[in-house]
Amino acid sequence: MIEGVSTEQRSDADRLAAADEVEAGRGPVAVVRPGHKSVVLVSAEQWQHLEELESAESTAWWRRDAEERAAGGEEPGAGEEGPGLDEAGFRLRFAHLLDNAGAA
After folding, report:
1. How many independent structural domains does the chain possess?
2. 3-state secondary structure 37-87
């Protein structure tokens, strides 16, 4: 399970009280129902923080990509109006990012 997330077994009424725990600042709370996937309740502030982290990670990726292109001798903006990579080239370049589960 995720570190720092409360995973106590809860009755139906207690599941509703989980929102009060999150609101009171006692951290994220996992709500688990038999036969269903778990869900995690987080505060709006924590959700905003997670979105900011995701945005920062995306920005860092684009910067690394631009640096790698520059290190490879590609001029800024070069090739961006052309046809781009074909599927084979894309898979070769970004294979480490692709999920192979269910691949044909």
Report:
1. 1
2. CCEEECCHHHHHHHHHHHHHHHHHHHHHHHHHHHHCCCCCCCCCCCCCCCH
